[in-house]
């Protein structure tokens, strides 16, 4: 569903005229802001299948810091695999990796561990690998990458639309003060119902992620 479709879905429920562009007037622009507010909340509520992607990194001999291209710091790593060495990589705290590189002669070899290391000049997240690669290795990072805020009419929403529409409607209702029928708390309750149902539907694809294990 596009940004414009989402805005018009909310406007209709508010008994407002539909628009041909999100920025047609002050009110539709504000509804667009509520859409993005709702989108941000819904995107972070669950690791949606719709947002899961694999980022490939090809290491260079002697270089240990790499950018996760296209993530723009919206990403969350689920797993990292050293595809060349056929092995999963393990997370280590930044302090642990820093000690290896700063306090002594860092080992070189097959990258086995990783940690986050800020963002690059383009705004993409970076990771450090350890040991320092001694050859070319293909590293595959399975990630959840949230999308940038919707900006133009044709921008698409990739997560389920109903929770976003109804949460934006609840936010708009709270700002307006009344909608002539449904109360604001009812709108928020309805948005929560749509969200919980959407998560339940998506979670069945990843049942292992909803089970807590005690060590």
Q: What is the global morphology?
A: elongated
How far is the first residue's CA from the last residue's CA?
Answer: 42 Å
Poorly predicted regions? none
Beta-strand percent range: 15-25%
Which structural class is indicated by helix and strand composition?
alpha+beta
Main sheet: strand order: 1-10-3-4
Question: Could you give the count of β-strands?
Answer: 10
| Average predicted local confidence, pLDDT | 93
Total tally of structural domains: 2
State Rg: 22 Å
Number of helices: 5
* N-to-C series of helices and strands: HHEEEEEHEEEEEHH
Helix content: 25-40%
Largest sheet: 4 strands, antiparallel
Describe this structure in words.
By secondary structure, the protein is an alpha+beta fold. The protein folds into two domains: 3-44 and 148-207, no CATH class; 50-145, no CATH class. 34% of the residues lie in helices and 22% in strands. The protein contains five helices and ten strands, in the order H-H-E-E-E-E-E-H-E-E-E-E-E-H-H. The strands form three sheets. The protein has a four-stranded antiparallel sheet with strand order 1-10-3-4, with no helix packed on it. Helix 1 packs across helix 2.
């Amino acid at each position: 569903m596009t940004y414009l479709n989402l805005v018009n879905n909310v406007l209709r429920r508010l008994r407002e005229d539909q628009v041909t562009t999100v920025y047609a007037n002050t009110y539709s622009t504000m509804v667009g802001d509520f859409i993005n507010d709702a989108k941000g909340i819904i995107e972070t509520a669950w690791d949606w299948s719709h947002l899961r992607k694999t980022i490939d990194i090809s290491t260079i001999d002697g270089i240990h810091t790499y950018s996760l291209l296209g993530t723009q710091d919206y990403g969350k790593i689920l797993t990292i695999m050293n595809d060349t060495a056929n092995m999963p990589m393990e997370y280590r705290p930044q302090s642990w990796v820093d000690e290896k590189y700063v306090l002594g002669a860092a080992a070189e070899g097959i990258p086995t561990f990783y940690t986050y290391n800020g963002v690059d000049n383009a705004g993409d997240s970076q990771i450090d690998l350890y040991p320092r690669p001694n050859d070319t290795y293909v590293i595959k990072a399975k990630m959840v990458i949230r999308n940038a805020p919707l900006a133009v009419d044709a921008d698409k929403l990739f997560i389920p639309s109903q929770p976003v529409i109804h949460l934006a409607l609840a936010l708009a209702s709270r700002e307006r003060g009344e909608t002539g029928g449904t109360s604001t708390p009812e709108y928020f309750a309805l948005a929560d119902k749509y969200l919980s149902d959407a998560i339940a539907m998506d979670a069945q694809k990843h049942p292992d992620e909803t089970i807590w294990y005690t060590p």
